[in-house]
């Protein structure tokens, strides 16, 4: 079973009746006019590869279905809510996505619609697992900087450098880490406060490790190496059970843009 993801970008100006078609789908199509609301909707399909084409689904089909069936619904709903000066919370965003799931279900042959994600900004998104009872997830990225050294006192110096390479540098070295926290939300999704969520992540984990020497300043790593794997499980330990009705689903830590580890508890 393969999973194929496609991001569709479009913009809506809620104050204009008509929108131009646009020709640059990399930026957004429709393009929006003036100060518009930008959307990036990621569609994930699960299915088998068709031998003659090598495709699960031709991505042009995904683009066409989303632009024909989903973009008009988003545009109409957004304009209605703006005209009535109504706040759109997490539950409202999930309603958008549920509507999109309904519009796209069974449109891609034997492939199944696995999930939809709506980027609220480059660092925050809401995801629906369409095949899993319409479960929803709030996901946000944070950053922190820290230094560490990878070393095992039970190894010889030669063995340490063989295993850990440059990361065994006696003076240590630093990383600009990215932390992504995913929380599974209850059905009453508007009870989830983003500001409170960010406060918990900051106080319980980020402020603990940010601009620290992980080997020296963090008791957890006095006895174990502060690898990206161990950092991910440490973040889980600090954050699990801290989000009220929101259940911690996954923690991801990027050590570089090429290396990350996910931990699901």
Which stretches of 5+ consecutive residues score pLDDT under 50? none
Question: What is the helix/strand order?
Answer: EEHHEEEHEHEHHEE
CATH topology of the largest domain: Tetrahydropterin Synthase, Chain A
Average pLDDT reading: 91
- Give the distance, in angstroms, between the N- and C-terminal Cα atoms: 24 Å
Identify the CATH class of the largest domain. Alpha Beta
Total helix count? 6
Work out the count of structural domains: 2
Oligomer: single chain
Number of E-type strands: 9
Largest sheet: 9 strands, mixed
SS-based structural class?
A: alpha+beta
Relative helix content: 25-40%
Choose one word for the global shape: globular
The fraction of residues in strands falls at: 25-35%
Radius of gyration: 22 Å
Question: How is this structure best described in words?
Answer:
The chain has 265 residues and is of the alpha+beta class. It has 6 helices and 9 strands. The chain folds into 2 domains: 2-133, Tetrahydropterin Synthase, Chain A; 137-263, 6-pyruvoyl tetrahydropterin synthase/QueD (Tetrahydropterin Synthase, Chain A, 2-Layer Sandwich). Helices cover 30% and strands 31% of the residues. Strands 1, 2, 3, 4, 5, 6, 7, 8 and 9 form a 9-stranded mixed beta sheet that branches. α1 runs antiparallel to α2. It is globular, with a radius of gyration of 22 Å.
Fold topology:
Elements: E1 2-12, E2 37-47, H1 59-83, H2 90-104, E3 112-121, E4 124-129, E5 135-148, H3 157-164, E6 173-185, H4 194-209, E7 212-213, H5 214-217, H6 228-239, E8 247-256, E9 259-263
Parallel strand pairs: 5-7
Antiparallel strand pairs: 1-2, 2-3, 3-4, 4-5, 5-6, 6-8, 8-9
Helix pairs in contact: 1-2
């Amino acid at each position: 079973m393969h999973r194929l993801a496609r991001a569709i970008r479009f913009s809506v100006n809620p104050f204009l009746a008509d929108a131009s078609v646009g020709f640059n789908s990399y930026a957004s199509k429709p393009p929006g006019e003036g100060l518009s609301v930008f959307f990036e909707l990621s569609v994930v399909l699960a299915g088998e590869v068709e031998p003659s084409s090598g495709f699960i689904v031709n991505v042009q089909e995904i683009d066409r279905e989303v632009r024909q069936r989903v973009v008009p619904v988003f545009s109409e709903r957004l304009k209605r809510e703006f005209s009535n000066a109504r706040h759109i919370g997490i539950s409202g965003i999930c309603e958008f996505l549920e509507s999109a799931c309904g519009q796209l279900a069974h449109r891609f042959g034997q492939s199944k619609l696995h999930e939809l994600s709506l980027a609220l900004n480059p660092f925050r998104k809401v995801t629906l697992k369409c095949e899993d009872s319409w479960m929803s997830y709030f996901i946000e990225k944070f950053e922190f900087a820290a230094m560490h050294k990878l070393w095992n006192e039970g190894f010889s110096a030669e063995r340490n450098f063989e295993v850990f390479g440059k990361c065994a540098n006696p003076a240590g070295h630093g990383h600009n880490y990215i932390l992504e926290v995913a929380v599974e939300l209850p059905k009453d999704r508007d009870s989830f406060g983003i500001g409170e969520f960010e406060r918990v992540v900051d106080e319980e984990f980020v402020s603990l490790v940010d601009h620290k020497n992980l080997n020296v300043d963090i008791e957890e790593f006095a006895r174990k190496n502060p690898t990206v794997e161990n950092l991910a499980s440490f973040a889980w330990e600090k954050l699990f059970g801290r989000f009220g009705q929101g259940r911690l689903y996954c923690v991801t830590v990027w050590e570089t843009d090429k290396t990350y580890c996910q931990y699901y508890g």
